[in-house]
Write a structure and sequence with these properties.
Layout lengths: L3 H16 L34 H8 L9 H12 L4 H15 L5 H14 L5 H8 L5 H8 L5 H13 L2 H14 L5 H7 L5 H14 L2 H11 L4 H22 L1
Helix pairs in contact: 2-3, 4-5, 5-7, 6-7, 6-8, 7-9, 8-9, 9-11, 10-11, 11-12, 11-13, 12-13
């Protein structure tokens, strides 16, 4: 009796089976109670309705694997959406989501949690996500959450993660630094322009173009004289992006 869709379908079906008619109206929040405000027609106002607890939802979600029925994921998303407007509720939700990340839940379940932390996460999430950031199996999901969480501690975590990583994990972190336009990453990104791995060099160059501050421009201008081929083309493109960003800021 926790899913709005189930409650409505069951009760209307029972009425039809007993009387051959269906008189119960479909509530305003069918099939999910994820609206910010409740109305008199909503199933949440029905007598006997018991809203789901996040603890119960997460217990079920912890074993989720890709390809399975996604009903439990919908319940989790609905719960988070309907509790995101209260700072107290967000803190409680975040605490429980982080507990799942620290458990032996499946990777698919942890990815789902990171999607929701992207929406309600705060700097409280950083210590847990920072550990996941440098692990191959969890780096992408951690970055996905961190990219939208406000706060300087997120930027510091990404810069630290850059120094501790390599390969595709490092390339991903570089991309996140660019997305967040982290100024403190410029020195490290400048060094990576000359990395022996071409994908890393291109990623660093691209990120500097996204950071687009005076320090990034200086690094890119110096790189123009020390690079060649496709990498030099990317350096030029990043300089143009910086110029475009400066023009927007000026206006």
């Amino acid at each position: 009796m926790e899913c709005v869709g189930f409650i409505v379908t069951f009760q209307r079906g029972a009425e039809w089976a007993a009387t051959g008619k269906v008189t119960q109206k479909v509530p305003g929040d069918f099939p999910a109670s994820n609206k910010d405000f409740s109305f008199s027609s909503d199933v949440r106002r029905w007598k006997g309705f018991r809203p789901p607890s996040l603890k119960t939802i997460l217990q079920k979600a912890a074993t989720y694997e890709y390809g399975q029925n996604e009903e439990i994921l919908s319940q989790l998303r609905d719960y988070i959406q309907s509790h995101r407007n209260s700072s107290e509720s967000r803190r409680d939700c975040e605490k429980q989501l982080l507990s799942l990340l620290k458990s032996n839940a499946t990777l698919a379940a942890k990815m789902t949690v990171c999607r929701n932390l992207r929406v309600i996460g705060s700097e409280t999430s950083v210590p847990v996500l920072e550990k996941m950031l440098i692990q191959k199996n969890t780096s992408d999901m951690a970055r996905y959450a961190l990219e939208k969480i406000p706060g300087v501690s997120v930027n510091r975590a990404l810069v630290k993660g850059l120094a501790k990583s390599n390969g595709n994990v490092r390339i991903g972190i570089i991309a996140s630094l660019g997305q967040r336009r982290v100024s403190d990453s410029v020195p490290a990104l400048g060094k990576l322009i000359h990395d022996s791995d071409s994908a890393t060099a291109v990623a660093a160059t691209t990120a500097l173009g996204q950071v687009a501050n005076p320090e990034a421009v200086k690094v890119l201008e110096m790189a123009m004289t020390k690079t060649q081929g496709q990498l030099q083309i990317q350096v030029a493109a990043s300089l143009l992006k910086c110029a475009g960003q400066f023009h927007v800021q000026k206006n």
